[in-house]
Specification:
It is built from 19 helices and 20 strands. The protein is α/β, with parallel strands linked by helices. The strands form 4 sheets. A 5-stranded mixed beta sheet has the order 1-3-2-4-5. The radius of gyration is 31 Å and the shape is globular. The two termini are about 40 Å apart.
C-alpha cells in the first residue's frame, strides 16, 4: 500500500526538528553526567571485576580470626606437589584423576597464607604415600569466572572432587586433618573390628568413635553404615560381629542387632542410637552428639562448631580464673538441650580466640557473659540479663529455642555532629537516616582494616562532594565492625547498598559495578526514587563555558563518552 503523500511530506519535513528535539533531550539528559565525568578524576578500583571483596561473611567463623596484617612475610614453602590451575587446564586436570582437592585462594587473604604451609605439607605427604589423589590451587582473583562457576564466596575455599563431582571440605585447616580426611575418603569408610585387642586400641586411642554391632560384616546394614561414614568426615566408623568386642564398646551382647553406639573420652562416654538404621539418620545422630556437652572454643575446633548442623549456640565468656566457678553450672544447664543447642565456652582473656570472638559479638570488658547466637545466615545474638545461675541459663536457653528473645545489635554512639558530605551512620541512628522514606540513601558498610575500603574512601568522599546540596539524597557510611542492623548486612567489605526513597520496606539494592564516581553516580541516578539535578557551584558560568566549547568537547571526549555510556 502506497504511503499518502501528505504523511510522507510531513515526516520528511519534520525529521530535522524531531532529530533536533532528540538531540536537545539527550543533551539535557547527559548534562549532569558530563559534569560528573569532567570532575570525577576517578581512581581505578583495585578489583575491576567488582564481585571480589575483602572479608568473609559466607564464613562467620573465619571472620573471627581474620589476619588483619597483610604485610606479614611468608616463610619459604615447598609447593612442589601442589598443582597450580587456571581455566585453561582445570577441566583436563580433573579428567585425568579420580580424586582431587582444589583450594580457591586470594593472595591478600590472611587465612590463605596461614593455610599454605599445611596444604603444601599435606600434598607432599599424600604424594609420598602414592595415594590416588592430587592437591591443586586456583588464584580466584585471576580466575574469577572459575571461582564463580564453583560458587566461591570466601577464602580459602577447599573443594574435594570425586570423578568430577565436588563437595566442600569443612575440616580443620591443618596438614594432619587434611591428610586424615582425604585418606578416609579414599579408604573403605568402615573398619572391621574382630579382636578384643583391636577394640582396646580404639577405645583408648580414638577421642570419638562410632561402632555398629551387626550380624554380618557385609550386606545391607554394613553398606548403610559405610554410607553414613561418608557423610560424617571427622569420626572413625567401625563394625563388629563379635560379642567380646561389643562388650568393650558398652553394647549388651544380647542387644538386638544392628546396634550403634557413639563413644567419647569425656564424662558422657557412651551415647546409644535408637533410631532407624539408615545412613542419613545415623550421620545426623553422630553429628548432633559428637561434641561434648561443653566445647571450649579454639582455632582448631571452630570449623566443627560453626559448621555443625546444630546452628543455635549458647556461649559463656569468662576469664580463666573465673571459669571454674561458672563451668559446672553451664554444663548442668546444657544437659536438657543436648542435640538441640551447642554450649560453647570462650576463654575471655585468651588472645588467640577470646579477644577476636568477643569483639565480633560486641562484648567489652572482662565481665562474665552468657549469650545466645543463631549461627545461620541471618545471624542474631541475644544477651542473658541478670544473675548467671542454673535456672536463669536454662530459662534463657528454652526461650531461645522458642524464639521469645529480643536480638541485640552492636552500635557506636550516635555522633554529636554529622554535617560532613558523607553522613556517619551507626546502629542506633540507621532507622532515622537510612530508612527515612523521604530520602534516597547510598550506604557504604566498611571495615577500618579493609584495604579496598581505604582505596575507595577518597572516591566515595568526592562523590558525596559532587552530590552535595541535593535535599532528597544522602551519601552515608557505617563501620560494619562496630555497628549492626537487620536491614544493613554486609557481604564482605566494602558493601555498598542503595535504599530508594519510598521503598524502604523492600530489600536494598546492592551496588556491584566498578567503584568509580561515574559508575556510582549512574547507579544512583538509575535507582533513585526521587529525580534530582546536581547543585553545581556557579552553574550559570559552567553552562556558558560548556556551550562555548561543545564542539571541542565532542571531539576530545565523544568516543570516550560513548564507551562510558
Amino acid at each position: 500500500m502506497a504511503m499518502p503523500r501528505s504523511i510522507l511530506l510531513f515526516l520528511l519535513l519534520a525529521t530535522p526538528f524531531l532529530l533536533a528535539s532528540v538531540s536537545v533531550s539527550a543533551a539535557a539528559r547527559d548534562d549532569d553526567l558530563d559534569y560528573i565525568i569532567d570532575n570525577a578524576d576517578d581512581i581505578p578500583a583495585n578489583d575491576p571485576e567488582g564481585w571480589l571483596q575483602e572479608g568473609s561473611p559466607s564464613d562467620d567463623d573465619d571472620d573471627l580470626f581474620e589476619d588483619s596484617d597483610p604485610s606479614s612475610s611468608d616463610a619459604e614453602i615447598d609447593e612442589a606437589h601442589v598443582v597450580p590451575l587456571t581455566a585453561a587446564n582445570f577441566s583436563s586436570f580433573l579428567a585425568a584423576r579420580r580424586h582431587a582437592m582444589v583450594e580457591f585462594y586470594a593472595p591478600w587473604c590472611g587465612h590463605c597464607r596461614a593455610l599454605a604451609p599445611d596444604y603444601a605439607a599435606a600434598a607432599t605427604h599424600l604424594a609420598l604415600e602414592n595415594l590416588d589423589v592430587a592437591l591443586a590451587k586456583v588464584d580466584a582473583t585471576e580466575e574469577a569466572e572459575l571461582a564463580e562457576q564453583y560458587s566461591v564466596q570466601g577464602f580459602p575455599t577447599l573443594l574435594f572432587f570425586i570423578d568430577g563431582v565436588h563437595k566442600d571440605y569443612t575440616g580443620e585447616r591443618t596438614k594432619d586433618a587434611i591428610v586424615a580426611w582425604i585418606t578416609k575418603k579414599l579408604g573403605p569408610g568402615v573398619q572391621n573390628v574382630t579382636t578384643a585387642d583391636d577394640a582396646e586400641r580404639i577405645v583408648t586411642g580414638d577421642d570419638t568413635a562410632v561402632l555398629a554391632f551387626l550380624e554380618s560384616l557385609s550386606g545391607a546394614h554394613s553398606n548403610e553404615l559405610a554410607a553414613a561414614s561418608r557423610l560424617e568426615d571427622a569420626i572413625n566408623f567401625y563394625q563388629t560381629a563379635s560379642l567380646d568386642v561389643a562388650k568393650l564398646f558398652h553394647i549388651d551382647p544380647e542387644a538386638k542387632r544392628p546396634a550403634v553406639v557413639l563413644l567419647k573420652k569425656e564424662e558422657e562416654k557412651v551415647t546409644k542410637y535408637d533410631g532407624e538404621f539408615r545412613a542419613s539418620a545415623i550421620a545426623e545422630f553422630v553429628s548432633a552428639n559428637k561434641l561434648p556437652l561443653i566445647t571450649a572454643l579454639t582455632q582448631e575446633n571452630a570449623p566443627a562448631i560453626f559448621d555443625s548442623p546444630i546452628k543455635k549456640q549458647i556461649l559463656l565468656f569468662a576469664v580463666a580464673n573465673e571459669a571454674s566457678k561458672f563451668l559446672p553450672i553451664f554444663k548442668e544447664a546444657a544437659k536438657p538441650f543436648k542435640g538441640q543447642l551447642l554450649f560453647v565456652f570462650v576463654e575471655r582473656d585468651s588472645e588467640e580466640v577470646g579477644e577476636p570472638v568477643a569483639n565480633y559479638f560486641g562484648i567489652t570488658g572482662q565481665e562474665t557473659t552468657v549469650l545466645a547466637y543463631t549461627g545461620n545466615e541471618d545471624a542474631k545474638k541475644f544477651f542473658l540479663s541478670g544473675e548467671i545461675s542454673l535456672d536463669n541459663i536454662k530459662e534463657f536457653a528454652q526461650d531461645f529455642l522458642e524464639d521469645k528473645l529480643t536480638p541485640f545489635y552492636k552500635s557506636d554512639p550516635v555522633p554529636e555532629f554529622n554535617d560532613e558530605d558523607v553522613k556517619v551512620v551507626v546502629g542506633k541512628n540507621l532507622d532515622q537516616i537510612v530508612l527515612d522514606e523521604s530520602k534516597d540513601v547510598l550506604l557504604e558498610i566498611y571495615a577500618p582494616w579493609c584495604g579496598h575500603c581505604q582505596t575507595l574512601e577518597p572516591t566515595y568522599n568526592k562523590l558525596a562532594k559532587l552530590l552535595r546540596g541535593i535535599d532528597s539524597l544522602v551519601i552515608a557510611k557505617m563501620d560494619g565492625t562496630n555497628n549492626e542492623h537487620p536491614r544493613a548486612k554486609p557481604d564482605g567489605f566494602p558493601t555498598i547498598l542503595f535504599f530508594p526513597a519510598g521503598k524502604k520496606g523492600f530489600e536494598p539494592i546492592t551496588f556491584e559495578g566498578d567503584r568509580t564516581i561515574v559508575e556510582m553516580y549512574r547507579f544512583i541516578k538509575k535507582h533513585a526514587g526521587i529525580p534530582f539535578k546536581l547543585k553545581r557551584p556557579d552553574s550559570s558560568a559552567a553552562r556558558t563555558e560548556s556551550s562555548g566549547s561543545t564542539s571541542a568537547h565532542e571531539e576530545s571526549s565523544g568516543s570516550n563518552l560513548k564507551d562510558e555510556l
